[in-house]
């Protein structure tokens, strides 16, 4: 029939053009499964790939499937690795990925990695293998030094972005800044705030002078006010600035110079850094506050009390604010009255050891929710919280997509009623229909999980600690949260019954982490047997602790072959740390001794 | 609600009645390992026993903040602990047969430090304003992270809290530092 032949002849170029409008990864994944022809067209035209778990697929396979790849995002270690729950040398190596890309995807322009181990050799390879390389973003990574940065600076001729966020970088001296090309650089964004060591200030000034496109610059603590002032004079078009150390004498030339330089920066929208900020240095910042959309004061314990209030009351266009809890409920009340556009708030703990009079409580959070109805993302560390406060907050702000509340003392009840916080957190999931990320704390029973399973239908990531009573709690979540992708649990009384309640569920998720729970080796083995498409990994830190003891000379322990331990008959042993994830790559080939794949 | 006390519940009470050496509220093992880095690339690894320590804030990986933030807490905490006593650091000089000890707390700034050190080691020139000169010596120090730093870059208070030991280097060797 005429219609049928028209359908069969549909040029590839047209389909490819249609696909180019699909930027959302899940959409592209979906079209690739329609038929072989579409799979082929999609894979050849794909420019961006996001790999949420670097062990979900072998690097070679990913690289071979998408030869036209321009941008790759990789995540390695489980999230709890950020809090020292994953032993060093666990894995998450970037090397195999960079090598695979170097072989198959020469057009790579951007590489974003989070919680991965990157070596200097890998950075060296990266610098030479991709002629169009433009952007390197490393978040919470480790394993490399400033030598690796030098290699990237030296050889990536079109480098636009070098963004280092909270990495552990070995400092081999300040010479890496000299490695950027002598001619004009194409740098648009440079962030080395996490570098702990000294910086060659003259090199930095020269680099800024020959980088006319610089829009974002985040310095580290070693850069003094004098240099900052010189830099600001060179870049009046800067949009995002991370200061160095803001310690300065108010009568110094440097301070005066900084004030005049900042006033010229009409495009500045985002500020961070503020190390050692003296109140007087803050005065220099006032003139630009009215246009700020982002402000990060979370490394500035000196900015508190009236100084903070004086600063924040000018920031009427603020969208994102990160502060320390030392600003107190009073400070948050001012935020609530001044920052009506606020969308994201993070309040970090300033002192773990004492609840001083100036730290935040539920009052601060309620004030924020009352004054800032557009709030959709929250990270809040506090010493206590009440159910009624949480209920009020969720009524005021029904738009939360990310809600993370960390009460510093584990299992702390509502101090007003001495009850668990089930109702409070339950109110959040009931009213916030778009909640995608949720972290809960304080005293919690199975009831809160009942609410989460029943109401949190959009939930993708859930973090639980010191909560729940029985297996039923975890089962509610597995059964109810249809869109759950990541579940991480520590110190909860969930056992084999919960783990095995719905084993096929884990195939629909990226990963499950359970540590210090009540699961046994028998349960984990059962899971591994039932679900061959999952990697069920146990982290046995007994080995790691032994190594540590041997090095410290604390104890003499005889090391046995690990494999004997898995099958020596005692399957009732509790498993300390379990990491389960779906994969098409099979068991890890790079797992260290202390990681057992069942 | 029937509270099921588990992981750390009973151990908390047990640890609370233990007799320990040291100021109240400190954990000796934590203090002992905080400044030491045997393997620079390895993060501080606390064994299973840390999970059952008395103070709730010393549970492994709790509160959930990233290492960089944790380290800034520890730095501030060590500062307050040291306030009661002096800050004694060893001073070595290249070529000298023995080391000296000096209390940074009693000094008021870099100028005074240089004067004292000159007196101790009887050197004629211990570096001018730049911290070093061609023929003389440079004063360097080892900081909390184990890095070798040139004295004089950071504010005095910050230097006192982060300096672990001092080393007087020959000028020619010290030039690489700036």
Automatic annotation (TrEMBL), chain A:
Keywords: Auxin signaling pathway, Nucleus, Ubl conjugation pathway. It comes from the Eukaryota. It is found in: Nucleus. Its main location: nucleus. CDD domains: F-box_AtTIR1-like. Part of a SCF (SKP1-cullin-F-box) protein ligase complex. May interact with auxin and auxin-responsive proteins. This is Auxin signaling f-box 2-like protein. It comes from Rhynchospora pubera.
TrEMBL record, chain B:
PROSITE patterns: PB1. SUPFAM superfamilies: CAD & PB1 domains. Coiled coil: none annotated. It comes from the Eukaryota. InterPro entries: AUX/IAA_dom, AUX_IAA, PB1-like. One of its GO terms (biological process) is auxin-activated signaling pathway. Keywords: Auxin signaling pathway, Nucleus, Repressor, Transcription, Transcription regulation. This is Auxin-responsive protein.
């Amino acid at each position: 029939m005429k219609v049928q032949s028209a359908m069969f002849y549909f040029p590839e170029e047209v389909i490819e053009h249609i696909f180019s409008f699909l930027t959302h990864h899940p959409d592209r994944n979906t079209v690739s499964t329609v038929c072989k022809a579409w799979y082929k067209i999609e894979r050849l035209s794909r420019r961006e790939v996001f790999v949420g778990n670097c062990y979900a697929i072998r690097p070679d396979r990913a690289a071979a499937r998408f030869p036209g790849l321009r941008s790759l995002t990789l995540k390695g270690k489980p999230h709890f690795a950020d809090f020292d729950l994953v032993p060093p040398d666990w894995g998450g190596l970037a090397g195999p990925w960079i090598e695979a890309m170097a072989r198959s995807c020469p057009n790579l322009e951007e590489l974003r990695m989070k919680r991965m181990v990157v070596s200097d050799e890998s950075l060296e390879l990266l610098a030479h293998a991709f002629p169009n390389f433009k952007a390197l973003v490393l978040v919470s990574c480790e394993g490399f030094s400033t030598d690796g940065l030098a290699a990237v600076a030296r050889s990536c001729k079109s480098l636009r972005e070098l963004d280092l966020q909270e990495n552990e970088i070995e400092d081999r001296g300040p010479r890496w800044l000299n490695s950027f090309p002598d001619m004009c650089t194409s740098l648009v964004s440079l962030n080395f705030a996490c570098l702990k060591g000294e910086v060659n200030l003259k090199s930095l000034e020269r680099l800024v002078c020959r980088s006319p496109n610089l829009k974002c610059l985040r310095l580290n603590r070693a850069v003094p006010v004098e240099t900052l002032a010189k830099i600001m004079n060179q870049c009046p078009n800067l949009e995002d600035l991370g200061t160095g150390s803001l310690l300065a004498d108010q009568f110094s030339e440097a301070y005066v110079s900084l004030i005049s330089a900042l006033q010229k920066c009409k495009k500045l929208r985002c500020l961070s850094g503020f190390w050692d900020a003296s109140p007087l240095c803050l005065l220099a910042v006032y003139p630009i506050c009215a246009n700020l959309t982002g402000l990060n004061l979370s490394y500035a314990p000196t900015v508190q009390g009236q100084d903070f209030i004086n600063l924040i009351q000018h920031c009427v266009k603020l969208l994102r604010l990160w502060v320390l809890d030392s600003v107190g409920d009073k400070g948050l009340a001012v935020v609530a009255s001044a920052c009506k556009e606020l969308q994201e708030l993070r309040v970090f703990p300033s002192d773990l050891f004492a609840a001083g009079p100036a730290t935040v409580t539920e009052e601060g959070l309620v004030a924020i929710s009352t004054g800032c109805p557009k709030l959709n993302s929250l990270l809040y560390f506090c010493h206590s919280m009440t159910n009624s406060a949480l209920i009020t907050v969720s009524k005021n702000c029904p738009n939360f997509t990310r809600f993370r509340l960390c009460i510093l003392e584990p299992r702390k009840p509502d101090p007003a009623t001495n009850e668990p916080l089930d109702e409070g957190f339950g109110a959040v999931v009931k009213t916030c229909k778009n909640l995608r990320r949720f972290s809960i704390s304080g005293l919690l029973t199975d009831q809160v999980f009942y609410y989460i399973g029943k109401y949190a239908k959009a939930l993708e990531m859930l973090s639980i600690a010191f909560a729940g009573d029985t297996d039923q709690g975890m089962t509610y979540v597995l059964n109810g949260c249809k869109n759950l992708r990541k579940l991480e649990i520590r110190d909860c009384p969930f056992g084999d019954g919960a783990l095995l309640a719905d084993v096929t569920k884990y195939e629909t998720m990226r990963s499950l982490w359970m540590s210090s729970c009540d699961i046994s080796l028998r349960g984990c083995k059962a899971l591994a047997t039932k679900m061959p498409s999952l990697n069920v990994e146990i982290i046995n830190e007994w080995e790691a602790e032994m190594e540590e003891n041997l090095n410290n000379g604390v104890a003499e322990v005889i090391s046995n072959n690990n494999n004997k331990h898995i099958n020596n008959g005692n399957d009732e042993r509790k498993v300390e740390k379990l990491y389960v994830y779906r994969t098409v790559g099979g068991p890890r080939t790079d797992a260290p001794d202390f990681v057992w794949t069942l | 609600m029937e509270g099921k006390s588990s992981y750390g519940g009973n151990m908390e009470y047990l640890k609370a009645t233990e007799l320990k050496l040291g100021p109240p509220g400190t954990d000796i093992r934590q203090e002992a390992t905080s400044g030491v880095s045997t393997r620079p690339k390895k993060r501080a690894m606390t064994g299973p026993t840390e999970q059952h320590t008395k103070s709730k804030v010393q549970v492994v990986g709790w509160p959930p903040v990233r290492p960089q933030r944790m380290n800034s807490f520890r730095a501030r905490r060590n500062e307050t602990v040291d306030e009661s006593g002096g800050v004694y650091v060893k001073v070595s000089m290249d070529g000298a047969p023995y080391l000296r000890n000096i209390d940074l707390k009693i000094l008021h700034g870099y100028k005074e430090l240089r004067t004292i050190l000159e007196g101790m080691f009887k050197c004629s020139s211990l570096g001018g304003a730049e911290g070093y000169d061609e023929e003389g010596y440079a004063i360097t120090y080892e900081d909390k992270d184990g890095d070798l730093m040139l004295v004089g870059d950071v504010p005095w208070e910050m230097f006192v809290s982060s300096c672990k030991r001092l080393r007087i280097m020959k000028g020619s060797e010290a030039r690489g530092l700036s």
